[in-house]
Design a protein that fits this description.
This protein is mainly α. Helix content is 86%, strand content 0%. It starts with a helix and ends with a helix.
Length: 257
């Protein structure tokens, strides 16, 4: 309920600021919120296929980038030899803006889904890799010594200690990167695609159809919120101990007070 009221308040504040700016500027490039929302409702049937294409592209990219980065990050973070070999290379490549490789990907992979998925997947991969490596590397050595003394197997160490220590940081990185992924998706679709919600916005802009353009912007914003909440829900399902600990901590604090 608190989250619902939070979103409602944020939407109302955004609409008020938007309306004030539209009234002050009086430009067709910035229609009133009521006009844009009416266009959004009108264009929903036409936009749905593009929204679906964008959703598939970004969901596959996030899943693939994370699946590749997680085991590699765990291996690098827990192996001094791999850490010495791969960490400098990772930190060298990580700051490079990945969008600069879009022209290369378009030449190699064509104009379909592949270059967009690969571009977003590479961004997610490096962020997840750095986060996972750092979290795995920073696990308390005393904790590892304790579980090692219990005669656990390597898989048990990963399942009982390393993954629980790494997953909260990984999901935090994924939630932060949802916005970045949406921005990169828009960039890729608007430049090299006529499909997807980025293509819709770009086409509407080129035809000076600002109402349809803002309808697409609203759709992309909703897509971003949906993906953010999907990642947050996945975190609650896969990292339950984090929220149980938080609730117990809050309950203990209240009881103590």
């Amino acid at each position: 309920m608190r989250k619902f009221f939070g979103y409602t308040s944020a939407v109302l504040v955004t609409l008020v600021i938007w309306a004030v700016l539209a009234l002050l500027l009086r430009s067709p490039a910035l229609p009133l919120p009521t006009t844009a929302l009416a266009a959004f409702v009108r264009d929903i049937p036409a936009m749905l296929p593009d929204v679906g294409i964008s959703l598939v592209r970004i969901a596959v990219a996030i899943a693939a980038g994370t699946a590749l980065a997680l085991p590699l990050g765990l291996a690098i973070g827990r192996s001094p030899k791999l850490d010495t070999l791969f960490t400098p290379l990772t930190y060298l490549l990580y700051p490079i803006p990945k969008v600069v490789f879009l022209p290369v990907l378009l030449v190699l992979l064509g104009l379909g889904n592949a270059p967009k998925i690969v571009l977003i997947g590479v961004v997610i991969f490096f962020q997840a890799l750095v986060t996972t490596r750092d979290a795995a590397h920073n696990i308390d050595p005393a904790l590892m010594d304790t579980i090692r003394a219990m005669g656990t197997t390597r898989w048990q160490k990963v399942r009982l200690v390393i993954l629980p220590a790494v997953l909260p940081d990984l999901f935090t990185a994924l939630r932060i990167n949802v916005g970045t992924s949406i921005a990169i998706l828009f960039f890729a679709e608007s430049i090299a695609s006529t499909s997807g919600i980025g293509g819709w916005i770009s086409n509407a802009w080129s035809m000076l159809d600002y109402e349809a353009m803002f309808a697409g912007i609203i759709a992309m914003a909703i897509l971003g919120v949906f993906l953010y909440e999907a990642v947050a829900l996945s975190e609650r399902l896969l990292v339950r101990w984090k929220y149980v600990g938080d609730q117990q901590g809050v309950g203990g604090s209240l009881a103590d007070s």
